[in-house]
Amino acid sequence: IARLNDKIPESKKHVFAINLSGATFCDREFVDEVKAQFARYGISHAQICFEITETHAVVNLSHAIGFITQMRALGCSFALDDFGAGMSSFGYLKHLPVDYLKIDGGFVKDIEDDSVDLAMVETINRIGHILGMRTIAECAENEAIIERLREIGVDYAQGYGVSMPAPLLAPGG
Asked: Which SS3 state, helix, strand or coil, does residue 137 take?
């Protein structure tokens, strides 16, 4: 993920995103397990961003809100992944206490050629910002898309136009 503007605090420069399934964040023992791993490895809570898909969050709304609230209290952040792909996106968005809104790549990848997709990305970005969320555009596959995302005011981009996948190196390695 690459920062697209300079408004993002430097303290959020190295954040590691972890995708969670709906079953995982509904598991009552998972919060305790995460807390144990933080203590065991001395991981900074501020460096962890959990990603939950919009679909799983909406289907398990009360569990999602409870889990997000508990982990945010520790200092972790949250991203609502694949936003726009679900059926009731905007209706539930203001009830989910997330930090980041990941705009579904299905809209992003064609913003250069499809005025409807461009309007969707602009709208999702604007609503996310009004709600105090930072936005991440998935499928930023080339410089033209990245430049358009900058013009729109999207905060971050993710995709092959930013960087090709690479292995995570262990400290000192």
From this structure: strand
